[in-house]
Prior knowledge:
472 residues; 39% helix; Amidase signature (AS) enzymes; single chain; two-stranded antiparallel ribbon; 16% strand; globular; 15 strands; 16 helices
Amino acid sequence: MTDRDASRRGLPAVAGQDPSPDVGRASLQELTGRLHRRELSSRELVEAYLDRIRRLDRFGAYLAVCDDAALDDADRLDRELRSGGPRGPLHGIPFAVKDNIDTVGIGLTAGSGALDDGWMPPRDAPVIERLRNAGAIVLGKAHMHELAFGITSTNEHFGSVLNPHDRERIAGGSSGGSAVAVAAGLAAFAVGTDTGGSIRVPSALCGVVGLKTTYGLVPTDGVIALGQALDTVGPITRTPKDAGRVLAAMRGEPEDPWPVASSLRFAVCTPREDEDPVVSRAVADAASALEALGAQVAWIPPLDVAEAAADELTLITVDAVAALADELARRGGGTVESVLPLLGSDLRALYAAQLGPDAVRSEAYAAACWSGRRRARERFARALEDADVLITPTVPMPAIPLAEHLRTRLADHVVDTIPTLLRETVAVNVAGLPAVTVPAGRAPSGLPVGVQLVGRERTESSLLAAADALMA
């Protein structure tokens, strides 16, 4: 099968038993050890993941699978390992890339019919270049919510991403395919983007670790923007230690040392009235586990995030339309007006409104960018006044049915799905702070639940240390 044959919606699924459960459940650290001990070659590892994708991807995790190129890269890295040792900390490790990030020689659609034209970026985004320099191998492009402007990864053009724990439920978004690829063992790790919760929400709903990095820590060049003042790139992995290793490669720097989790101080948000009890219990259990380690834990009221959510929507409404115009121009033609009919129904009206008399004006944009960020930072500064890490739910309930991607129920009330899924994550982006979601048990239905850890700027190592302690 050629790369072009495999470039739409991944390899065809073939029903069958899990062909390589040891690979599917292995952490990045475990795989790296096996590669370095020559118990496994890079080619064998890539072949195992391609076989898993072919047999098990009934969730729509991939939009493109570049099997030939991945195998060629694996052969080259095997030769390098034999002749001179590992290229870097990710030598021979296959990963998935969200399809709004430039990867040379692979089509870039951002999950949109407006960009499904076969165009390929001439070069890798800097973050992908760094990962390749560390020895990682691109398996393919992960599915996503169209243009990253959504949180469910329901998609009218390519089909929706399905939750690997229940295919009748959402995977979350917009990095839905990236989270599913890791949760289903279809990649060793994945790269996602997060503008209001797009790494953390799907990671929580799929039961994996998702790290939203400090604004500006990882370059976003070569990423189709959603909100330039908010966009971040980060890893989705099986463990916090894996996330730390991938983050170091993304930064092109050695991994920061981790503090001892018990030395950190934690502020834990009390439950909101409408929160699903299983989520509230997960937060309480996390607090108890940290207290048992000897850490200082204090309970505080939940943060007011309504203003931050409004500010985020103002910013991305303006930036998303401008980013689509820039992307169309990069490809040599077309206007936003001309592609409106190709957008999904959930986006068409939003983009059309920004082109008309009801568009968000520059004054509102500036106020959201400057005053909104200041307000959000002040709220988190108060919450973290006597703490190093803030603990909240990631999402107020487990994954909801696909049919409820617009409206759902929470505590017997009908609510708008998007702001409900984002309510614990979006203010973190407006403030520009780092956060990680960590698996924190399951609902009686078997669906995963996630807990969010938020810190001050550039304290990713503290967040990952705490997350690792909670997963131990």
